[in-house]
């Protein structure tokens, strides 16, 4: 995982292999035909935001930790501190998209903002391909 701003970790290029994609099972929305499952790790006590750039919102939806995917052009996660708990917490979720692509995300972690690219079913420049079979 690539750690951004010391607060959030996600599989961003080029240090992480592209994620595998599989059919999402969403027969209603062809824009969400594929799913790339991955966790998202957040440092406790630090709010984060992840947003899809406006130009890519028809090509990607995101969701972690119970976030709905139908309108998920962005997520905000506030992971509270808990005594005796590890300083990092992981959320289940991932990416929905119509076809494999290398897509950007805007990540805000504390006062840090960065655009990262994630390979979904296909690698971003300099990135390794998916580690297993991927649906296209």
The portion of residues assigned to helices is under 10%
Structural class: mainly beta
Which parts are unreliable, with pLDDT below 50 for 5 consecutive residues or more? none
Major beta-sheet overview: 4 strands, antiparallel
In the CATH hierarchy, what is the class? Mainly Beta
**Average pLDDT over all residues:** 89
* Tally of individual helices: 0
Strand composition percent: 35-45%
Whole-number total of structural domains = 1
Spatial separation of the terminal alpha carbons: 24 Å
Shape: globular
SSE pattern: EEEEEEEEEEEE
Oligomer: single chain
* Strand arrangement in the largest pleated sheet: 1-2-5-9
Number of strands: 12
User: What is the C-alpha radius of gyration, as a whole number of Å?
Assistant: 14 Å
What CATH architecture label applies? Sandwich
Provide the CATH topology: Immunoglobulin-like
Notes on the protein architecture:
This protein has strands at 2-4, 8-10, 22-23, 34-37, 40-43, 48-51, 61-64, 74-77, 88-91, 93-97, 101-109, 112-120. Helix content is 0%, strand content 40%. It has one domain (2-120): Immunoglobulin-like (Sandwich). It has 136 residues and is an all-beta fold. The chain is globular. It has a four-stranded antiparallel sheet with strand order 1-2-5-9, with no helix packed on it.
